[in-house]
Amino acid sequence: MSTAILTGQPVPGSPLEGDLRSLGFDVRTARDAADAETLVGAVPADQRVAVVDTRFVGHVHALRLGLTDPRFAAAAVPGAVTVKPEARGALTRALRTAVGAGGAGAVTVAADTVPDRLAETLEAADVDVYRPELGTLVAAVPADPEARNTARQAVAAVDDEAVRLRSAVKARDGFFTTYCISPYSRYLARWCARRGLTPNQVTTASLLVALIAAGCAATGTRGGFVAAGLLLLFSFVLDCTDGQLARYSLQYSTLGAWLDATFDRAKEYAYYAGLALGAARGGDDVWALALGAMVLQTCRHVVDFSFNEANHDATANTSPTAALSDKLDSRGWTVWARRMIVLPIGERWALIAVLTALTTPRVTFVVLLIGCGLAACYTTAGRVLRSLTRKAERTDRAATALADLADTGPFAGALATLRGLPGLAPALALAGGAAVVATSALTSFGSPWPVIAAAGYVITSGLAVARPLKGALDWLVPPFLRAAEYGTVLVLAAKADVNGALPAAFGLVAAVAYHHYDTVYRIRGVVAPPRWLVRVIGGHEGRTFAVTVAAALLTNTDFTVALTALAVAVALVVLVESIHFWVTAHNRGAPAVHDEGEPA
Q1: How far apart are CA 466 and CA 460, in angstroms?
Q2: Separation in Å, CA 80 to CA 57, 86, 120
Q3: CA–CA separation, 288 vs 22, rounded Å?
Q4: DSSP code of residue 73
Q5: In the prediction, which pLDDT does 106 show?
Q6: Which of 103, 167, 459, 519 is buried most deeply by CB count within 10 Å?
């Protein structure tokens, strides 16, 4: 329960008290600023508290946006201010300042000025007070009856429920999602909200539907493929609904953002596995294509993550290429063309669903690989051009984030203590990674040469992260390292040419990819994974070296067993540690966040 304290003389006929109760507030009334300070002190320390002007006139959704958003420690709209427990001390000090502003007597301070004065005092004390953009919504404190009547007319002229529904939809989304899903999924979100469902429950439902879709695809029958395509689309509808429900009801949480982002990856990659199993039932082995699609899509995401982290807080962040991109993003058809060409999740899942229903798994994967490959070239080339033409100074925080994304293990970590070569980090990562993948591909299975190349990869990857990753193209280091590790596993499993090797490799890459995605969301939400976890699972270079050694020393069949064992071991360690971390962080009240989703 949250508490709202009304200040000032009651206004006859005002719906304010009922509106606040509908938002979950226990409403109390203060006579003046001193009484408000007393009432705030009586509220339990673990509760949100709001101070609201009794003259407030506005939409209920304006109050909801200003007083109930869990992402911010302090927030305000005209006539109302709220703080979460972590900012209660600052609010108490601000109240004392408001009381003291009246001189010797607290009653000389006009009580109905308290909320706005508190917000100004909090900001003066360097408290970040969130002020939501209300748009057409009304939030006002009329000074006289005439102004109050005008404000009420303004409230009546705007349907705040329609505004609430529109704002539930992500502001920037793909063409398919915007025009084919959101027009009705927003109403599904409202339906869920009115029945008390949470975004996490809808997220879980979306995962279950996608897993059923994967099971249908695994049957290998035409009916199963059609059902799989339809269920995948329904899973995407639910995937959109959970975010819209979070925005509609302001139910944001760190755990919810992690579940939403992680389950998206789990759904897509489980569906790939289902298609591969279905194809195998029909006598067509497409596991290499399925694994290739997962590797490509994961590397695309790493490019997105690394580029965004590198430039998140860069200073002097200007670029002619970025200016051109912004210009194209503001003009008609080019906006949608640019959003579609990167094959975002909506377009990608629609493509997969249609191809599954109408063609074969092999055709589905080939088209997907071509489309994602072209999209990767387009986005990566644009980001390289931006980086080369951008005059920016990257911060220590960005360098730390890129180092965490690199996932450097104990072997390369030991070499990272050496003095690296300035400006060569991306070249070193690319050269070492390309060498181990190419050597694995060009030599026969069981050859020692991939082991030698992997040893060289340990050295080059260690040197690549020896210096802080602040160079113009240093954000390419993590994607190069991901491509090297995943590509080596894919190539060696394919070269083994034995039943079960590629599915085992698929499982290993899926487990490692989960760890890499988890690292991204931890950096964004709380803190990077502990170093002991990275050391236990070997780091990217340790796993790559281990896989090449297994391929050189074991028979084809034993190599498959080794891949399976490694996949199970990595999955158990990262899943147990990750789930424990996120649940603990949620229970401890980690700052609420909301992930708007990745463009790819």
Answers
A1: 10
A2: 11, 18, 12
A3: 55
A4: S
A5: 37
A6: 519
pLDDT digits (tens, 9 = 90+) for 14-72: 999 999 999 999 999 987 777 888 898 899 988 999 999 999 999 999 999 999 999 99
Taking the C-alpha atoms of residue 40 and residue 34, their distance in angstroms, rounded to an integer, is 10
| Residue 149 DSSP SS3 | helix
* 80 dihedral zone (left: phi>0; alpha: psi -120 to 50; beta): beta
Q: Which ranges in 311-395 belong to alpha helices (H)?
A: 320-328, 332-341, 345-358, 361-389
By three-state DSSP, how is residue 328 classified?
A: helix
Q: Quick one: how far is CA 566 from the chain centroid? A: 28
Q: How confident is the model at residue 435 (pLDDT cuts 50, 70, 90)?
A: very high
Cβ within 8 Å of residue 286, ≥6 positions away: 275, 276, 279, 280, 361, 362, 365
Rg (CA), the chain: 28
| 103 pLDDT higher than 70 | no
- What single letter denotes the amino acid at residue 545? F
Which residues lie below 8 Å from residue 172, measured CB to CB, with a gap of 6+? 596
Give CA–CA dist 86/127, Å, rounded.
Answer: 11
Using the structure block, give the residue that is written with the tokens 């939030």: 139
**419 to each of 416, 465, 475, how far by Cα in Å?**
7, 10, 19
Q: What is the mean pLDDT of the chain?
A: 90
Contact by Cβ (8 Å): 563, 501: yes
Return the closest-CA partner of residue 90 out of 36, 124, 127, 46. Answer: 127
Rounded distance between C-alpha atoms, residue 141 and residue 191, angstroms: 33
What does the alpha-carbon distance between residue 468 and residue 403 come to, in Å, rounded to a whole number? Answer: 8
Structure tokens at 372: 């994602």
Identify the pLDDT of residue 476.
Answer: 96
pLDDT tens sequence across 472-511: 899 999 999 999 999 999 999 999 999 999 999 999 999 9
Q: What is the 3-state secondary structure (H, E, C) of 179-233?
A: HHHHHHHHHHHHHHHHCCCCHHHHHHHHHHHHHHHHHHHHCCCHHHHHHHHHHHH
Residues 6+ apart with CB under 8 A from 341: 374, 375, 378
Write the DSSP assignment of 438-456 as a string of letters. Answer: HHHHHS-TT-SHHHHHHHH
Secondary structure of residue 83 in the 3-state scheme: strand
Rounded CA separation 581/255 (Å):
10
Looking at the predicted structure, is the pLDDT value of residue 183 above 90?
A: yes
CB atoms under 10 Å from CB of 418, counted, come to 11
Length of the chain: 600
Distance of CA 312 to the CA centre of its chain: 14
User: Terminal CA-to-CA distance of the chain, rounded, Å?
Assistant: 39
Q: Helix (H, G, I), strand (E, B), or coil: what is residue 40?
A: helix
Paired residues of 81 in beta bridges: 51, 76
For 139, the token pair is 């939030």
Question: The tokens 């502001």 sit on which residue?
Answer: 171
Name residue, tokens 């997962």.
294
With the C-alpha atoms ordered 394, 402, 598, 135, is the resulting torsion angle positive or negative? negative
Q: Cα–Cα distance between 391 and 406 in angstroms, integer?
A: 24
